[in-house]
Amino acid sequence: MNDTRNFTIIIVRNTDGHRAYAPGFPDVVGEGVGRASAYRDLKQRLTEYLRNRITLGGPIPIDAAVAVKSFRVNLRELAREDELV
Predict the structure, then answer these.
(1) H helix or E strand, kind and range, residue 3
(2) In which element (H, E) is residue 21 found?
(3) Which of 3, 7, 19, 43 is the most exposed place for a label (fewest CB within 10 A)?
(4) What is the DSSP letter of 53?
(5) Could you read off the pLDDT of 74-84 as tens digits, one per residue?
């Protein structure tokens, strides 16, 4: 077994604060008032989840993410372009 793994963590804002999740673990979610607290909560939950998986001999998911990108679009510009058509 490979001793170390990297997992992609996504943090989003919701109405109650922030939520953190890892795509490879759909049932494990961290929550917090801020990004840092949501991240810490997820790390704690993931560590416990992985500890249980190792104890039970279950497989450890492999993160399928190969890159994380942001996409920024100016919605006002798109609206103007649509008005010109």
Answers:
(1) none
(2) strand 17-21
(3) 3
(4) H
(5) 998 888 776 66
Predicted TM-score (pTM) of this structure:
0.77
The whole-angstrom separation of Cα 23 and Cα 38 is: 15
**Contact between 65 and 23 (Cβ < 8 Å):** yes
Nearest to 25 by CA among 42, 37, 11: 42
Going along the chain from its start, the domains and CATH numbers come out as: 10-84 (3.30.160.250)
> Which residues contact residue 18 at a Cβ distance below 8 angstroms, ignoring those fewer than 6 apart?
11, 12, 31, 32, 33, 34, 35, 37, 38
- Count Cα neighbours of 38 within 13 Å in the Cβ-side half-sphere: 19
